[in-house]
Each structure stands twice: as C-alpha cells, then as structure tokens.
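Methods: holo model generation. Sequences were used as deposited, without trimming of termini or removal of tags, and paired with ligand SMILES retrieved from the corresponding compound records. Each pair was processed once, and we did not select among multiple samples. The sequence and NDP SMILES for this entry were:
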Amino acid sequence: MGRSWGEKRMRVEIIGAGALGMMIAASLTGAGHEVRLVTRTLEQADAIRSKGLLLSGGMECSAVAGDEEQVTLYPSAVYAYDELQQDNGCEADAECVLLMVKQTAITDAFAAFVGGRIRADGRLVCFQNGIGHTEALSRFIPASRMLLAVTTEGALRHSLRHVEHTGRGLTWIGALAPDSPTAEDNFFQKKLQSQLQNAGFAVSLSNQITSKVWNKLLINAVINPLTAVLQVTNGALIELPALSPLMRSLYEEACGLADKLGIPIAPDLWEQVLEVCRLTANNRSSMLQDVQSRRRTELDSITGGLLVKARETGYKLPTHEAVYALVRSIEQQWETQNS
Ligand SMILES: NC(=O)C1=CN([C@@H]2O[C@H](COP(=O)(O)OP(=O)(O)OC[C@H]3O[C@@H](n4cnc5c(N)ncnc54)[C@H](OP(=O)(O)O)[C@@H]3O)[C@@H](O)[C@H]2O)C=CC1
Ligand SMILES: CC(C)(CO)C(=O)C(=O)O
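and the model returned the structure below.
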C-alpha cells in the first residue's frame, strides 16, 4: 500500500529561535509534531526549557489555541548552538530542518554546522528573505536536498520566549533544484505542506519558487531600505508624495534586472508593493527594526543581492546603488562607534 503524506507527524529541527522560528516552533508543537529548537544562546535555551514558548496573536485561526489569547508550548527539545557543537549525543535525525536565522548569520562556519544537522535522507528548508544564502549553504548541503520557503506570515519577538503572530499570510515552498524531482522529493514536499497546514498555515507548493523569491525580494528592495533611511513605518511610504518616483525607480530597475535574468515577475507586483504598504501600514519593516536596534541588517541579501546579480550580468541599478550606500552608511556609523 502507498504511503499517505498526511498520516504521520514530523520530526522537525528549527534552527533560529527568533520571531519566525519561535512562532513556527510553537505552532508545530501545538499540532503534535516533535520539534527540536536550536537557539543561539544558552540563556534563551534555558528560558524556553524551563518556561516554554509563549505564543500570542493570530489565535482566531490557530490550530493550537482554541479561545485562549496566549498559550504556552514546550518543544520536545531545546538546544543552544554551542551545545550542539559539542558531542552531546543529539543526533542529526530530523527528517526536516527549518532554517530560520537571518541571512547575516549564515557564515561558512554556520553553513557547515547546518550541513551537519541534516540526516542523509533529510531536507533543509530555508525561510530567509533575500538572496545569496543558498550559494553559501550549497557548499555544505547538496542543492537537491534544499528547499526554499517564501512566507508572508508576520511574527514579532517580545522576549526570549514570547512571540506574537502579528499577521496571517501565505507560504510557498519549492525545491531549489526543481528539475527532475524524485518520488521521494514529491512525497517530502506534500508531507511538509500537509503538516504545516495541519498546524494552521496556508501553504502552497511551487515549482517556480525562484520567481516567488524574487517577487518578495523586489517588494523588500523597495520598502525596507526606504523605511530604514527615513525611519518611518511601511504605511508612511505611500503617504509621502515626493517618495513615489523613487519607489517606482527602485521597482523598475529591479524588474529590468529580473527580466534580463529570465525570472518572471507578477504583472501586478507594483500594486502588491503598494498593498503591502497599506496592509502593514503601522509596521516597522525588519530593516528599520534592525537599524533601530543597531543590528546588522539584511541589506546585503536584499539590495546587495540585486547589485551582485546586476554586476554579474553587466546591468546597471543606479537607484539601488544609492540606497545601498545610504543604509550601509547608517550601519557603518555604529560599527565605527563600537570599534
Ligand atoms: N519575522 C517575520 O515576520 C518574517 C521573517 N522572514 C525572514 O525570516 C528570517 C528570520 O527572521 P526573524 O525570525 O524575523 O529574525 P530574528 O532576528 O527574529 O531571528 C533570527 C534568530 O536566529 C538566531 N541565530 C543567529 N545565529 C544563530 C546561530 N548560530 N544558531 C542558532 N540561532 C541563531 C538569532 O539569535 P539571537 O536573537 O540570539 O541573535 C535569532 O533568534 C529572516 O531572513 C527574515 O527576513 C520572512 C518573513 C516574515
Ligand atoms: C513585507 C515587509 C516589508 C513587511 O514589513 C517585510 O517583509 C519586512 O519587513 O522585511
């Protein structure tokens, strides 16, 4: 008899217990999956081990909460990165590793660590915004074992263990190397889709995930740097008439590059950019949050990712060059102060 992808719970390892990692870990735990969560610090691992994850928000359609406004959930295991670096008997036995760190955390040493966490028949699913990370990871993990996820779910971290699900969205998942998928590849994707759906997420599979990644990249490349430079919420961008031509230039330059690279962009993407500004009007973009917390932003994977592709193809992105220099200068101010 054939296997059914909905029939069995998954054993999942989530690396990165930030906003997205804690929210998805809590939701999968609530749906009965075996979740191992990997934090950066021992302090956070201890906090979650002793008091659990606190999930709030988004409860109206959550699979875990019923009528509660917040729930506490205990993942099956929690480890700090350093603990897993030591030989502590925690095998790389998850069928699926969900990577939920920011692009800025993906150094060669970290990519090698992630490679060591994937079992021989396991899969890595990368949730990062932007581009460039798969090149670093594929030095340690075969491309055939990597999937990309693009999500418009919103999550906000309030403390080491409290996360708020700030907005329900959609998630697309697809293979990094979509040509000639095996029966095993198809089975895995359908199982992951079914299990995430059963944890309350709206998930679609895509055999054009690169195009989805680029559509989200273009949205981020228009919104994020401008909010970071101007220190305004997403909604303010469409309230300031003088910004409109600048946003449009960023958008058109990036569309021209995608076209040159043969990557399909949704015909209504400009309307989507404006719609994201309207729907998330009061939100601070992730880049603005990073700037305000003096953390290194994902600039190099968003605007910088476009600039790398442009250089490789001899394409010019003057407006993105200018915006890159502005955000990078903001980062350099505090790098100089801290050195
Ligand atoms: N938040 C959201 O709503 C969405 C986020 N995304 C994307 O998802 C990715 C994650 O975003 P988000 O969750 O917001 O980011 P966060 O910064 O909230 O979370 C990233 C987490 O990774 C942890 N981390 C860093 N290095 C390591 C390490 N060596 N081992 C284990 N953990 C590590 C960080 O730990 P520490 O805090 O201790 O430094 C942090 O908790 C980003 O690429 C983002 O663009 C996409 C869509 C929506
Ligand atoms: C879509 C947007 C701009 C929402 O804030 C985002 O993805 C981000 O902040 O990184």
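The mean pLDDT is 92.
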